[in-house]
Amino acid sequence: MSVAAASPVIILVRPQMAENIGMAARAMANFGLAELRLVAPRDGWPPADTGPKGMTQAAAGATGVLDAISVHDRLEEAVGDLHYLFATTARERGQAKPVHLPEEGMALAAGRLAAGQRVGILFGPERTGLENDEIAIADSVLTFPVDPAFSSLNLAQAVLLVSYEWTRARGGATAPFALPADSAPAKRETVLSFFALLDVELERAGFFQGARAPVMKRNFRNIIHKMEPTEQDIRTLRGAVQALIRGGRGRPGGATKAPSRSGEEG
Amino acid sequence: MSVAAASPVIILVRPQMAENIGMAARAMANFGLAELRLVAPRDGWPPADTGPKGMTQAAAGATGVLDAISVHDRLEEAVGDLHYLFATTARERGQAKPVHLPEEGMALAAGRLAAGQRVGILFGPERTGLENDEIAIADSVLTFPVDPAFSSLNLAQAVLLVSYEWTRARGGATAPFALPADSAPAKRETVLSFFALLDVELERAGFFQGARAPVMKRNFRNIIHKMEPTEQDIRTLRGAVQALIRGGRGRPGGATKAPSRSGEEG
């Protein structure tokens, strides 16, 4: 089964704005969905598609999704080959159907898709949402955990949230990158050697005062450990400490001892 | 602490398009975020804000967020009062920082906000994203589990995903409605009484044939139970069965017995 066949089908019912069709296609491509169907787009098909609010510009290069769009006169035609249908709604519609949030709904979709079923998700027109008779042919309702005081979610934003949760449900939610590989913590001997340098140099500079000296040394150790330093971090800090000492030697009252081994700033 | 103070601050650095500022404000309002800061918006401030791609139209009524926008010349000014900063990036930037997906990052944010810290999230310009020096002042990197083959996420879409995960992290991800309250399953006596009607009427109509009759009766029971019927569902089905019987009586070869008690379609 191809990736496309194993992903949910997004069905925009009577979409009004070409820009939203393009933005929905872009959101789908961001999260690996491939199949977009339109039912009776308000401005006909193909769209005029010019200017900054045109479909193609809004799709920002999601041409794979755009090229595969199918357009249908009636909702029944657009869903005939599907086994399970969600209807998205922003508010209670008084229909006796299970109600799912996107995470739960897409987990359910992933199970059905894995079993070889085809799953579709219906989105209504921008202004009005799906009609009750359109919701009635769906198996369940999908809704969004929006602030009740401002629940008007843009059509493409709704498609994005469903697409994002689909990627999470299929186990595809991994960061495209991680901490650089050379970010392992410094070996403890590196850190301890740096503490030894600090102790000697700060002692020489008169930083540690009397009875508080042991506490101050522990504080210094804790400050450094909080940053979980890498080998490179310690090399950088060691170099900075030695540079400060060298810089101080040139000033009135500065130390006059020979410079330590220079830092290995990489 | 007010709701606003306890939510993350969204900071758009050098945003290019007024429409995206408006769409970001709308996405924030959808999920209960209140504080939007702008650093050096490309087209100045206030925006020309006319036409279909204006900020106000794109905000679709999120005036609370728009009215509270603060505008800053420099990033440092915009983040001075915050304790923890995320930098959003779409790709590896070679910086030795922890990398979080939105869910994990917003869980971390929720913990810090609950402890009284203020948290900000930096978003870069549409075309280029944040500069490396801007990322360097953040505590960690936030990225999105996009398809590597099409990773260009719209600015307002990125704000939406973070806002959505913030709502989930703060425990606010509840559906605005559920199944209607009268959707409790039918009492078993209601269902059994319906099965008794079906058995009698289908027997009388010659539907149950010979040795397969017990299997067919069990199948019928299982079909009905799969729909987890409510009291109303059973009343509707009972009414439909009785209507079919009445309708049949008027046809050639139809039954001639007296009508059963009529269905209680509500």
What is the name of the CATH topology of the largest domain in chain A? Alpha/beta knot
Series of secondary-structure elements of chain A, N-terminal to C-terminal: EHEHHEHEEHEHEHHHH
Mean pLDDT of chain A: 87
Largest interface comes to: A-B, 56 and 56 residues
What count of structural domains of chain A?
2
First-to-last CA distance of chain A: 49 Å
Tell me what the CATH architecture of the largest domain in chain A is. 3-Layer(aba) Sandwich
Instruction: Tell me the Rg of chain A in angstroms.
Output: 30 Å
> Approximately what portion of the residues of chain A adopt beta-strand conformation?
5-15%
CATH superfamily of the largest domain in chain A: SPOUT methyltransferase, trefoil knot domain
Low-confidence residue ranges of chain A: 1-5, 254-266
**SS-based class of chain A:** alpha/beta
Provide the helix percentage of chain A: 40-55%
Number of DSSP-assigned strands of chain A: 7
Shape of chain A: elongated
Strand order of the largest sheet of chain A: 3-2-1-6-4-7-5
Instruction: Output the number of helix runs of chain A.
Output: 10
- In terms of quaternary structure, the protein is homodimer
- Main sheet attributes: strand count, strand direction, barrel closure of chain A: 7 strands, parallel
Q: What would CATH call the class of the largest domain in chain A?
A: Alpha Beta
